[in-house]
Design brief:
alpha/beta, Rossmann fold, 6-stranded mixed sheet, 20% strand, globular
């Protein structure tokens, strides 16, 4: 087990300076977005990147409506964690940077069950999941994804790598929930950042802002958002 790498001090300081200088005014009390990751050993090398991308999600939606984000992850033997709901970026980044990645099987079922429970208490506008494998019963997970679809809680799934079994499963979960799927690798990190920002804007509930953002991006972003229709 090794410590997950942390964002550079310069990046964190720069982000926090920007976050503190922005207005706290928003159109709503804050939409809820569940940001979840596979934190097993295979993901350790990209955890730092996930922290950086999450920061961009907060900044992108500050002027159109605040976000409350809950961090969820699983790793090791049967370990699943869900944080409080954060509107403070510094708290969330500190939590992500303290995570230890460790070997273990995927626990997507626990994540989806948690999301169902949470959204029945108070609606979750979107779920983001970043992972690279799926080692569970696809039929059971598909049923849970369908339940989230009925609850109008879409899953936006981003697959690292190109495992075909995982791809088929992730696409099915996204479709059943009313969400969207996209694959990425180290070479397409800038695209992933744009996609995550699009999801954050979607979760904020501002349709015009999402249309404006989509119009400014490349065709791949538009194709991704087309899945929502």
């Amino acid at each position: 087990m090794g410590l997950a790498p942390t964002s550079s001090a310069q990046e964190i300081d720069s982000f926090l300076h920007q976050a503190k200088s922005l207005s706290n005014t928003s159109h709503t009390k804050g939409a809820r977005l569940l940001f979840s990751l596979d934190a097993t050993a295979s993901r350790q090398s990209t955890w730092d990147h996930a922290c950086h991308l999450q920061s961009k999600m907060f900044l992108a939606t500050d002027t159109i409506g605040s976000l409350n984000i809950q961090l969820c992850y699983f790793n090791g033997y049967n370990f699943f964690y869900s944080s409080p709901w954060y509107s403070n970026t510094e708290q969330l980044l500190n939590k992500m940077n303290s995570v230890q990645c460790s070997a273990g099987h995927t626990q997507i079922g626990k994540l989806l069950n948690h999301a169902i429970t949470e959204t029945r208490k108070e609606p979750i506008k979107a779920i983001v999941y970043i992972g690279d494998s799926m080692e569970e019963d696809i039929n059971l997970l598909s049923s849970m994804a369908g339940t989230l679809g009925l609850l109008k809680t879409p899953i936006f799934i981003f697959q690292e790598g190109n495992d075909l079994i995982t791809k088929r499963a992730f696409k099915q979960f996204a479709q059943l929930s009313g969400g969207a799927y996209h694959a990425f690798n180290n070479a397409s990190s800038s695209l992933l950042a744009q996609l995550l920002i699009a999801v954050a804007i979607y979760a904020s509930g501002n349709k015009k802002a999402l249309q404006d953002y989509s119009a400014q991006q490349n065709q791949e972003i538009s194709v991704f958002l087309e899945q929502l229709k």
